[in-house]
């Protein structure tokens, strides 16, 4: 057995190796100064498909990001194998600041929010005029989510050959929401895609709608080279379509003049995450009237001292706009039905 003297030097000290076989923890993280920028196109079971320059790269989230998740539309920084070759894998080491976020919950009682898409400029709410029947409450909920997330809404009405759009548009004209009406024949000959595309140029637009409304059919017409499987038959009993889009996917418009994000069909759009006080931000003509409201006023028509009634009565805003605001606020408190 080796003995140490009274004054051993450092070379005489035996340091036992780490019994766990790993390096000690440190708070210092690599800066990844050589990381390249990209955009998340789709997410599938922990694997993210990203666009880096003109290459499609498969990546995974780096451990140092912790619980922070990347979603479709995120601007990210990647390291590793960025060749895009088969069986290669890169790592996402940074997620950029988001300019907008579209969120939803499963229902109004579910506190767990799901980020649908990030950094979109516009939300296209696709609704069929018949087969299945339009659901105004679903439209209202999507509008609230758009306003809350910083997206501009666009109403896309399909199947106008089966029913008129006049009645539905009467309810949404006061909101000032832009709209486009299409028929199935126009989708087939390309006229509908041309008219819709004019409203999408130079923007990132997320498409949402419940199953069977023709959302993915429209996306296929807009981006014909990247066709997705479309909806089959609408159930004759429930009046609902069947989900065929199972994950969100960002697709570039022809000539590189914008992006469309096709999202899975939804049957409910929960608003548990939305603070009702922020909905008024979508009504700049009504905002000044709230200055005389009592603190904590909900503006929902149930507060006797709400100053918005007097503001509208004095002619500062259209009464239909106040009705629209209160209808949207009511949807936040109401659970989505059929």
TrEMBL record:
Domain EngC GTPase residues, every copy: 118-267
PROSITE patterns per UniProt: ENGC_GTPASE, G_CP
Function per UniProt: One of several proteins that assist in the late maturation steps of the functional core of the 30S ribosomal subunit. Helps release RbfA from mature subunits. May play a role in the assembly of ribosomal proteins into the subunit. Circularly permuted GTPase that catalyzes slow GTP hydrolysis, GTPase activity is stimulated by the 30S ribosomal subunit.
Chief localisation class: cytoplasm
E.C. designation(s): 3.6.1.-
PANTHER family: SMALL RIBOSOMAL SUBUNIT BIOGENESIS GTPASE RSGA, SMALL RIBOSOMAL SUBUNIT BIOGENESIS GTPASE RSGA 1, MITOCHONDRIAL-RELATED
Keyword Transcription regulation in annotation: no
Keyword field: Cytoplasm, GTP-binding, Hydrolase, Metal-binding, Nucleotide-binding, Ribosome biogenesis, RNA-binding, rRNA-binding, Zinc
This protein's record includes keyword Metal-binding: yes
Species, as recorded: [Kitasatospora] papulosa
Residues that coordinate or bind GTP: 158-161, 209-217
Domain CP-type G: 109-269
Binding site for Zn(2+): 293, 297, 299, 306
Top-level taxonomy: Bacteria, Bacillati, Actinomycetota, Actinomycetes, Kitasatosporales
Pfam families noted in UniProt: RsgA_GTPase
SUPFAM superfamilies cross-referenced by the UniProt entry: P-loop containing nucleoside triphosphate hydrolases (SSF52540)
Assembly mode: Monomer. Associates with 30S ribosomal subunit, binds 16S rRNA.
Family (UniProt): Belongs to the TRAFAC class YlqF/YawG GTPase family. RsgA subfamily.
Transmembrane segments: none
Subcellular location: Cytoplasm
Domain of life: Bacteria
Protein's recorded name: Small ribosomal subunit biogenesis GTPase RsgA
């Amino acid at each position: 057995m080796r003995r140490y003297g009274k004054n051993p030097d450092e070379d005489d000290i035996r340091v036992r190796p780490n019994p766990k076989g790993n390096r000690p923890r440190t708070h210092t993280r690599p800066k990844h100064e050589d990381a390249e920028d990209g955009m998340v196109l789709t997410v599938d079971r922990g694997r993210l498909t990203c666009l880096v320059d003109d290459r499609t790269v498969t990546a995974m989230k780096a451990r140092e990001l912790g619980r922070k998740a990347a979603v479709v539309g995120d601007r990210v920084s990647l390291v590793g194998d960025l060749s895009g070759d088969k069986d290669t894998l890169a790592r996402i080491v940074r997620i950029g600041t988001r300019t907008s976020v579209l969120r939803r919950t499963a229902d109004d009682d579910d506190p767990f929010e799901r980020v649908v898409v990030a950094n979109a400029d516009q939300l296209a709410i696709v609704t069929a005029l018949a087969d299945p029947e339009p659901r105004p409450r679903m439209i209202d909920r999507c509008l609230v989510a758009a306003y809350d997330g910083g997206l501009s809404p666009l109403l896309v009405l399909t199947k106008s050959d089966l029913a008129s759009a006049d009645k539905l548009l009467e309810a949404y004209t006061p909101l000032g929401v832009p709209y486009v009406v299409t028929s199935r024949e126009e989708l087939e000959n390309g006229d509908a895609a041309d008219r819709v595309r004019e409203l999408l140029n130079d923007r990132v637009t997320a498409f949402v709608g419940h199953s069977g409304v023709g959302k993915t059919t429209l996306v296929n017409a807009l981006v014909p080279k990247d066709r997705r499987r479309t909806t089959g038959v609408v159930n004759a009993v429930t009046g609902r379509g069947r989900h065929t889009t199972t994950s969100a996917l960002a697709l570039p418009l022809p000539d590189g003049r914008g992006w469309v994000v096709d999202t899975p069909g939804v049957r409910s759009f929960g608003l548990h995450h939305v603070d009702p006080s922020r909905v008024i931000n979508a009504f700049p003509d009504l905002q000044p009237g709230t200055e005389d409201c009592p603190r904590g006023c909900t503006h929902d028509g149930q507060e006797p001292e709400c100053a918005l009634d007097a503001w509208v009565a004095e002619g500062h805003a259209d009464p239909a706009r106040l009705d629209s605001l209160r209808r949207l606020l009511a949807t936040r408190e109401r659970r989505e039905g059929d």
